[in-house]
Amino acid sequence: MSIIYRKAVIADCAVLTQIRMDNMDMYMEHESADAKRALCRSIQHYFEKGITENTLITWLACDAGKIISTSGLTFFDVMPSITNMSGRQGYITNMYTYPEYRCRGIASKLLELTIEEAKLQGCGRLVLYKTEMAENIYINFGFENSSGYMTYCP
């Protein structure tokens, strides 16, 4: 196994959309096929718009050309504060690794790349919504619990 890490490009949007839908599948078991198709279109539009406008950067882990893990970073601005003078924040989203690739350090490497990207983009704070499965990874990087979200200040 030789993992390649790279940033997503517009040509990756269809695959990123499918990965996101796979990730959300367990939460949508009672949704209609029409609702799932509509969500799929919205997600693909989100990826296309974000990558084109550089408001979303997604790091990928690939094995033999197949995307196996993702970590997205969306940017937004809030009122500057004493702990975030720039007001620039990053929201980490779509952290997902296919089950057969878990527990190999791939998500940790993607999170490291995502944090470095946030620093390069001038983010004074990072936020994410944690899952129980990934909580220890976030804690190991210095994220702290904050009302269900975890935050990290680079």
Written description of the protein model:
There is one protein chain. With 154 residues, the protein is of the alpha+beta class. It has a domain at 3-8 and 55-152: Aminopeptidase. The protein is built from four helices and seven strands; from the N terminus they run E-H-H-E-E-E-H-E-H-E-E. The protein is globular.
- CATH top level of one domain is Alpha Beta
What is Rg?
A: 16 Å
In spatial order, strands of the major sheet run 1-2-3-4-5-7-6
Order of helices and strands: EHHEEEHEHEE
Give the overall form.
globular
Distance between the termini: 31 Å
Low-confidence stretches: none
Strand content: 25-35%
Question: Can you tell me the CATH topology of one domain?
Answer: Aminopeptidase
Mean pLDDT: 91
- What is the helix fraction of residues, given as a range? 25-40%
Structural class: alpha+beta
Assign the CATH architecture of one domain: 3-Layer(aba) Sandwich
User: What profile does the largest beta sheet have?
Assistant: 7 strands, mixed
Number of strands: 7
Please describe the topology of this protein.
Layout (H helix, E strand, L loop, with lengths): L2 E5 L5 H12 L8 H21 L2 E8 L2 E12 L10 E10 L8 H15 L4 E5 L5 H6 L3 E3 L2 E4 L2
Parallel strand pairs: 4-5
Antiparallel strand pairs: 1-2, 2-3, 3-4, 5-7, 6-7
Helix pairs in contact: 1-2
Short structural description:
The protein has 154 residues and is α+β, with helices and mostly antiparallel strands. The protein has helices at residues 13-24, 33-53, 106-120, 135-140, and strands at 3-7, 56-63, 66-77, 88-97, 125-129, 144-146, 149-152. The relative contact order is 0.15.
